[in-house]
Amino acid sequence: MDESSSTPVTTGAGPGPSVLAPTPPQHAVRPPSKYAAAAIPLALLGWSIALVPPLAVTIALRLRELDRADSAANLGLVLGVGAFFSFVTNPLAGRLSDRTMSRHGMRKPWILAGALIGYVGVAVIAYAPNVLFVLIGWSVAQVGLNFALAALIAMLPDQVEPHRRGRVASFISLAQNVGGVGATFLVQLFPIGTLQVLVPSLFGLVLMLGAIAPIKDRTRTERPAEQFDMKALFGSFVFNPRRYPDLGWAWLTRFFLNTTQFTATGYLTYFLIANFDVSDAEAPTKVFQAVLANAVGLLLVTPVLGWLSDKIGRRKPFVITASLIATAGLTLIALSTSIPMLLLGQLILGAGTGAFFAVELALLADVLPNEETAGKDLGVANLAQSLIPIAAPGVIGAFGYPGLFLGGAVFGLLGAFSVTRVRKVR
Predict the structure, then answer these.
(1) Where is the composition biased (Polar residues) (predicted)?
(2) Which of 310, 313, 345, 369 is most buried, judging by how many CB atoms fall within 10 Å of its CB?
């Protein structure tokens, strides 16, 4: 992990409170942007609306159009390669935003560039003549959207004081999951085709850019002391878990719960088609109903738990409880024999994942080792992507979609254990 903690960072606004370090450097100031506490969740709402349509619905349907017989295997390939590009891009984008000296700020230029690149990838998916172009389009989209995500997430420790992070993190969780509802609602308004791919993502990206426009971004006025050489480049993707064990265990917890969440999202369309005789044309509406049920569960718990976590100064009990609830919900989905039973499972899963994401980002921010490399370190934390796209085709072939979901539920139990190993945060 790099040690550029003395890098001067300033903004054009007056002095603000410390974000991560107890006493900020004398040359470091923060923009006192109260709007950021609302703008960051709103921007991530837009980001989610841009991401979810291809991830949950439109890629799956495009692949069935192009090659119905091998659609499940192709989906695993496309999502797996996309996950790789997400894996590579996120920490690199965070590192680059930490070093950016633009007069427009450290984070905003990357959010704008990421939005434009991401939408180019979505457009490639919409017009793809074969599976290869779907793969290329999703890879490009993941690069762009993860550039934007890394910079957006880095705004949390930039702009929000520690005692407010639980509340803001809960609103981020709420926004991202409500974004899934909005995204799938938009998708099912259009027939299968180009507009179904293009319009929802465009709406989400416009919302994201509009939300961050008024924020006074951090700006850097002096060049970083550390050279950005090959060692620094590869250092963007690693941290030392022996030196920072709390970050390591928080990372592992996030990996386990991301796996649980993604299992119920990435293959939901095919699960409905294969196990409930849902047609391709009906699938977007059924996915919307499932995502809506998930969001209802989330809405019941997220706002309260983020506030309560800040109030009592504890994070781990909420993560443990959330992991167990999410495990129960995904298990019920796996054993579902009817749509109502599946929707109930989604409701329970939503309550569990909502409780987790209400506090997990605040937990990560609390264990970051260095405020001046927050973008890079949160980018490394975002490497905790699910490996489900890589493993899913083999698991589905051997055990079917219920087996895939039960496997995801096991990861929820592992998440409940791993968070108990974090020492710095109660």
Answers:
(1) 1-10
(2) 345
Q: By the 8 A CB rule, do 97 and 103 touch? A: no
Given this model, what pLDDT does residue 38 score?
Answer: 86
DSSP designation for 162 = G
* Backbone φ and ψ of 219, nearest 5°: -125, 150
Over residues 293-309, the pLDDT tens digits come to 988 888 887 767 667 77
CATH H-level, domain 36-217+240-421: superfamily: MFS general substrate transporter like domains (1.20.1250.20)
Angle, alpha carbons 279-285-286 (nearest 5°) = 70
CA–CA separation, 422 and 250 (whole Å): 7
Write down the domain spans for the chain.
36-217+240-421
Token look-up 């457009």 returns 123
Q: Which residue is associated with the tokens 């992507």?
A: 385
Distance CA 120, CA 140 (A): 7
| 244-289 tens-digit pLDDT | 787 778 777 878 877 887 777 778 899 999 899 899 999 999 999 9
Alpha-carbon distance 135 to 121, whole Å?
Answer: 10
CA neighbor of 57 nearest in space, from 391, 297, 282, 348: 282
Backbone angles phi, psi at 218, to 5 degrees: -65, 145
pLDDT at 76: 86
Distance CA 250, CA 417 (A): 11
| Number of DSSP helices (H) and strands (E) in the chain, helices first | 15, 0
